[in-house]
From TrEMBL:
Keywords linked to the UniProt accession: Hydrolase
Taxonomy, superkingdom: Bacteria
Gene3D superfamilies attached to this UniProt entry: P-loop containing nucleotide triphosphate hydrolases (3.40.50.300)
SUPFAM superfamilies noted in UniProt: P-loop containing nucleoside triphosphate hydrolases
Similarity remark: Belongs to the class-IV pyridoxal-phosphate-dependent aminotransferase family.
Gene Ontology BP annotations: carboxylic acid metabolic process
Keyword Protein transport attached: no
PANTHER family membership: AMINO-ACID AMINOTRANSFERASE, AMINODEOXYCHORISMATE LYASE
Gene Ontology molecular functions: hydrolase activity
Name of the protein in its database record: HAD family hydrolase
Length: 235
């Protein structure tokens, strides 16, 4: 599942982790991204802890993702942040996998991002990288967060059917609190998810951006609109 930041990606990870046959991986390229991103863009909360917790070589990350699954596990769900991809990264390893894009309207993403970070550039919110994935990996399901939150069960059922696995209503709710699978960055970002026990109902958000935020939205809007037009729509 390839998402940008400030989306429902961690709640989505909870849904899949609540399956008895599934193991989840939380943002495996985070340390590799930080190690290769100097300056303010790489100055994230808990940076040193993240760098110490994961491989910083992308090839090591790919090898770990390809390792055999634990006994009794049939599904590996990987929560990827697309802004962790750099232009030079080879995506060939992902072609044989079942890839999904999780998108969110960029004005809401930028507004949420700027509540946590002082600076936001187009590359920071992952939408341009999502378009690259679509171009390089080919057609894949695209799920819009607003659509999903209006009817989580239908979208999860569709995804399970597409994957050839059985849906379970255990995916719709989960116990509150942290998990061992959470990345070491969780204390900085996961307060809302730790308090949650399911997906929050969708509600539109009023967004007010300054000129800098608006410029980021304008830079990524064509990519978002292209993906939105190709999104999965369930009737």
């Amino acid at each position: 599942m390839w998402s940008g930041p400030r989306n429902i990606s961690t709640a989505m990870m909870r849904a899949w982790e609540n399956r008895s046959d599934t193991v989840v991986v939380d943002e495996p390229f985070y340390a590799a991204y930080l190690a290769r991103t100097p300056g303010s863009r790489g100055d994230h909360p808990g940076r040193d802890d993240v760098l110490a917790s994961q491989p910083t070589d992308p090839a090591e990350v790919v090898a770990a993702l390809a390792a055999p699954l634990p006994s009794g596990v049939e599904v590996q769900y990987v929560k990827h942040m697309t802004h962790h991809l750099l232009p030079e990264d080879d995506l060939a390893w992902a072609r044989p996998l079942r890839n999904v894009l999780l998108i969110r309207t960029p004005d809401e993403v930028v507004a949420s991002y700027l509540r946590s970070r002082e600076v936001c550039e187009p590359e920071d919110i992952g939408i341009l990288q999502q378009e690259r994935l679509l171009d390089e990996l080919g057609e894949m399901p695209i799920v819009d967060a607003a659509d999903f939150l209006r009817d989580p069960e239908s979208y999860l059922r569709w995804l399970c059917d597409w994957l050839g696995i059985a849906f379970t209503d255990q995916m719709l709710s989960w116990p509150a609190g942290p998990r061992e699978s959470d990345g070491v960055w969780a204390p900085h970002w996961y307060d809302a998810v730790w308090a949650s026990t399911g997906f929050d109902p969708y509600h539109p958000r009023g967004v007010h951006l300054d000129a800098r935020g608006e410029s980021v939205v304008e830079a990524v809007l064509p990519a978002y609109e292209r993906m939105y037009a190709q999104r999965l729509v369930l009737r």
